[in-house]
Amino acid sequence: MYGKGLRALSISTVAVMAIALSLVFFYAPLDAEQGFLQKIFYVHVPLAIVALCGFVAGAIMAIAHLRTRDPRWDMRSYVAIHMSLIFGVGTLITGSIWAKGSWGHWWVWSEPTLVSFLIVFLLYATYQPLRFAIEDPERQARYASVFAITAGAFVPMNFIAVRLSTAYLHPRVLGSTSNLPGPMALTFAVSLLGIALLYTTLCRYELTAKHTRAQLRDLRRRLSGETVDTQTRRPRSAAPTLHPTAMHPTATMTARAVGRPGA
Amino acid sequence: MSGVILGELPALPLHTAGKYVAGAYVVLFALVLIYVAIMAVRLSRIERELGELSELSERSHSETPELDRSASPPSQTVADQQNVRHPESTPA
């Protein structure tokens, strides 16, 4: 289901990333102030933007989960947040490297953009422990969705609050203060597209792997003639597990129509 | 040939800032590489589970005809047994 078109997506991701790297190192001019160090901008900023957008996408998927009670939306929300956390780690590390090269310090606590991103990252770092703390899969999914929506709403609020703050040490990329010259803007746009494609591809890989695992578990259950519901016997995990009925949309709809508890 | 191509490429100023830029891009590639390694481990686990399941399926297939043969009368043929097991496969 999730594996459809994955090959084309992977190839286009590799192609766009290769083009982006070529543009960064052989096309984009050197910055007048920072020189070669500014090349970090083309990896750090897209990572941050995609990570934050991923958190918001996780919140939107969580809304879809609460509206439909379809566990596939919970799975998508989980994967989006999980992947955004990985991209968030990349943002923090590349940002620290840039800060060290530019300002001489690995971290500047007086800079609101850095601290606000760290707050958002730490907030989402509690997502997995929250899931792990709840044993009942349905309750886990519901609580995780509520968390994802609340934290997702916090992301744009945080972004606006930082914009309104007065300390402007961190360079502004998007908005009225943006004054990137043409070649730099093009390189940035291609880099952003490449990182966004990378995020989408990795999410699709993760979803395909989880879906395949769920299918295998279901197949094993059927072959061994087990009749006990696997949801009740599964080991405690932070990752959502797709119920066999959730793997086919019609099966879920039927389950909802007959009023299955939690469906 | 490769020397000509390399000669055409712009010289990258790798003196002071080079190590920071290289570090930032290495971080990105390391993250992707770690993820690919994790996916490889998962894929091998899925492959192993699939092998176990196909073995389980073969074993159950090889055990089922013996059970059916012992349960059915001696005059019944294999084709008859198959028809009994899969009534929907018989022509209308």
Give the percentage of residues in beta strands of chain B: under 5%
- Count of the domains of chain A: 1
* Molecular shape of chain B: rod-shaped
- Secondary-structure element string of chain B: HHH
Shape annotation of chain A: globular
Unreliable stretches covering 5 or more consecutive residues of chain A: 248-263
Largest sheet of chain B: none
Query: Which two chains have the most extensive interface, and how many residues on each?
Result: A-B, 32 and 28 residues
* Radius of gyration based on Cα positions of chain A: 21 Å
Number of strands of chain B: 0
Sum up the structure in keywords.
heterodimer; A: 263 residues; mainly alpha; Four Helix Bundle (Hemerythrin (Met), subunit A); B: 92 residues; 3 helices; 75% helix
Task: Describe this structure as you would to a colleague.
- The complex is a heterodimer of chains A (263) and B (92).
- Chain A has helices at 6-26, 41-68, 71-103, 112-125, 127-133, 137-164, 182-223, 230-233, 249-257.
- Chain A is an all-alpha fold and 263 residues long.
- Chain A has a single domain, classed as Up-down Bundle (Four Helix Bundle (Hemerythrin (Met), subunit A)), CATH 1.20.120.
- In chain A, helix 1 packs antiparallel against helix 7, helix 2 packs across helix 6 (137-164) and helix 3 packs antiparallel against helix 7 (182-223).
- The relative contact order of chain A is 0.15.
- With 92 residues, chain B is mainly alpha-helical.
- Chain B has a domain at 33-64.
- Chain B is built from three helices and no strands.
- The longest helix of chain B is centred in the middle third of the chain and has 54 residues, at 18-71.
- The model of chain B is unreliable at 74-92 (pLDDT under 50).
- The chains are: A mainly alpha (263), B mainly alpha (92).
- The A-B interface holds A 25-26, 30, 34-37, 39-40, 43-44, 47, 86, 89-90, 93-94, 97-98, 100-101, 198, 202, 205, 209, 212-213, 216, 219-220, 223-224 and B 9-10, 12-14, 17-18, 20-21, 23-25, 27-28, 31-32, 35, 39, 42-43, 46, 49-50, 52-53, 56-57, 60.
